[in-house]
Amino acid sequence: MPYQVPEPKIFACTQSMALAEKIALHYGTNMGNVHISRYSDGEFQPSFEESVRGSRIFIIGSTHPSSENLMEMLLMLDAAKRASARHITAVMPYFGWARQDRKDKPRVPIAAKLIAKMLETAGATRIITMDLHADQIQGFFEKPVDHLFASTLFLPYLKTLSLENLTIASPDMGGSKRAYAYSKALQSDVVICYKQRAKANVISHMELIGDVTGQHVVLVDDMVDTAGTLTKAADLMIERGALSVRAMATHALMSGDAFEKVEKSQLKELITTDTIPLRKESEKVKVLSCAELFADVMHRVHNNTSIASKFLM
């Protein structure tokens, strides 16, 4: 009798449980059973409460800080490897620590490279992620990386708004490639903000390259952390004559007083995804779920079919 490849199993890290349940629902399967034992000093131990021998398994977990989120993913990968899982895919909707992707000054780490090696050492045989902070992070891995784009969610939503005089904007020079890709898909103009930082998360000066007079502007970025850049850019564009300003950011870290900044800003709305669970709800924040996208890609990976149609950018 020929060997029958078993159906895949889906497991979740604690921080991504809500998203994983949605993904499993779209995939058409139940969540796998994982138990987390915790010690009084904070140490924890994940345990698969069902056999994964010979199986393809997907472990879903974003690795945003705190570092416990990354540690839980690593421990689950190691447990799966030692339990003889056949294929172990780390599904990381948000790949954390990615802002440290190069040496921008002496004596600093390249954290994204380090984490790529840690994931592979722990047992990951494939990575599925979305909107990396820098595309070249894919090259830090020796295993296959499926790098998805939130444009597959954002572009259809933007088209439903039927905005005339639409202009796409990048909040910084580093995001210009993403902004141009959106502008090409929407056949719109593009402008770029030029910013200077006094230190991390603190903007000392911002200028606008391009004209937004009489335009409905949409800022596009891969993440929103303190929301300082997006809100400052929105205020600047309204001053320069924009009719409205929206922002689209795939990963809503929303640290500190980010929600308050968004609510008090000139932003009409902030459109994001559920790669990271929101700390609280806001009338100005609209969440588009990425669950169906990840479920579809995971199904295609398991069945060895093309995922090229999922790359709009």
Can you describe this structure?
It contains eight helices and 14 strands. It is an alpha/beta fold and 313 residues long. The strands form three sheets. A seven-stranded mixed β-sheet has the order 10-9-8-11-12-13-14, sandwiched between helices. It has a five-stranded parallel β-sheet with strand order 1-4-5-6-7, sandwiched between helices. Helix 6 (228-239) links the parallel strand 11 (216-224) and strand 12. It folds into two domains: 9-149 and 292-310, 3-Layer(aba) Sandwich (Rossmann fold); 151-288, 3-Layer(aba) Sandwich (Rossmann fold).
The major beta sheet can be summarized as: 7 strands, mixed
At CATH level 3, the topology of the largest domain is Rossmann fold
Gap from first CA to last CA: 44 Å
The level-1 CATH class of the largest domain: Alpha Beta
Structure annotation, total helices: 8
Mean pLDDT: 93
Total number of beta strands? 14
Trace the largest sheet across and list its strands: 10-9-8-11-12-13-14
Radius of gyration: 20 Å
Strand content: 25-35%
Helix content: 25-40%
State the domain count. Answer: 2
Q: Can you name the CATH architecture of the largest domain?
A: 3-Layer(aba) Sandwich
- Element order: H for helix, E for strand: EHEEEHEHEEHEHEEEHEHEEH
Helix-and-strand structural type? alpha/beta
Spans of at least 5 consecutive residues with low confidence? none
Specify the overall morphology: globular
